[in-house]
Design brief:
Blueprint (H helix, E strand, L loop, with lengths): L2 E4 L7 E4 L4 H18 L4 H108 L10 H13 L3 H14 L6 H14 L3 H14 L5 H15 L3 H14 L6 H12 L5
Antiparallel strand pairs: 1-2
Length: 288
């Protein structure tokens, strides 16, 4: 009969020896095929091919690993370069921001200086305009006074004593003879400059101009009151009347400052309540 035994033949793992009938041989052949297929045994040449493929795969994996390492190194270098670029950009941005801030500060300072100079020039212009209007008013009134004096032969003689001269001025003012009242007040200021009623005299002088609509001249006189006689009871009244004069000159913004000064600095003034009313209207958008 045939017997199954190992063989050193290069063409297979197993070989058969005859040891009986064909039927027995076939039985052993079927068993051999089953063992081969079920056990996973493969021919020698197939195993060699698989080893070559595995070796090739390992070599390819090694090359891929080397490529991956190179790519990682390149990527790391790119990341480091990007970080350096970002750091440089941040530094440049910081320097640019600091420079811009310095430039803005310098520009802001220059702009503030220009604004202050402009305000100074505007104030100077307004002051010049006031002086011009005052000069025009004085010239006009001087001409009218000269005409009056020539008409009545030089005018009525004024009293000499302080009390009489002051009463004379008051009477003329009440009768709305503002020019005569003003002449008496001017005479009083020259002859009795140390009199305790000087604040009232100057204030009344401003009132004569105010009643005649000579707003600029009135402002000049009222200013003398709170500048030269700040502790007088007329100081707050004069500030209020300056506000009123500015309103008549259509300068409500300036007038508001004087009304506010009356309320805050001269609470005992007889015009405090009126100053508050004016301010209330102004806050409502009205120019009284």
């Amino acid at each position: 009969m045939w017997r199954l035994k190992p063989s050193g033949s290069p063409v297979g793992f197993l070989c058969f020896t005859y040891d009986g009938s064909v039927k027995v041989m076939m039985r052993y052949l079927v068993m051999l095929m089953a063992v081969v297929f079920l056990s996973g045994c493969v021919p020698i040449w197939t195993g060699s091919t698989m080893q070559d493929d595995i070796a090739a795969l390992k070599a390819e994996q090694a090359r891929q690993n080397e490529t991956l390492e190179e790519k990682q190194k390149e990527l790391s270098a790119m990341v480091e370069s990007a970080r350096n670029d970002v750091a440089s950009l941040n530094q440049m941005t910081k320097e640019a921001t600091e420079l811009l801030a310095r430039n803005n500060a310098d520009f802001g300072l220059e702009l503030e200086q220009v604004r202050q100079e402009l305000q100074r020039l505007v104030g100077k212009m307004e002051e010049t305009d006031f002086n011009l209007q005052r000069l025009q008013s004085d010239l006009r009134m001087f001409k009218e006074d000269v005409d009056i004096r020539f008409a009545d032969g030089g005018g009525t003689p004024l009293p000499e004593k302080a009390d009489e001269l002051y009463k004379f001025a008051q009477d003329k003012f009440k009768n709305r003879d503002f020019r005569a009242a003003r002449k008496a007040l001017e005479s009083f200021a020259v002859k009795h400059a140390r009199d305790s009623r000087m604040a009232d005299v100057v204030f009344m002088m401003g009132e004569t101009y105010f009643e005649e609509g000579e707003w600029v001249s009135a402002v000049f006189e009222y200013q003398k009151v709170f500048k030269n006689y700040p502790r007088s009871s007329k100081a707050g009244d004069a500030v209020f009347r300056i506000g009123e004069s500015y309103v008549q000159l259509k300068k409500c913004q300036e007038a508001q400052l004087f009304y506010e000064s009356v309320v805050s600095d001269y609470p005992k003034s007889t015009y405090v309540s009126q100053a508050r009313e004016r301010l209330s209207k102004m806050k409502g958008g009205q120019c009284p």
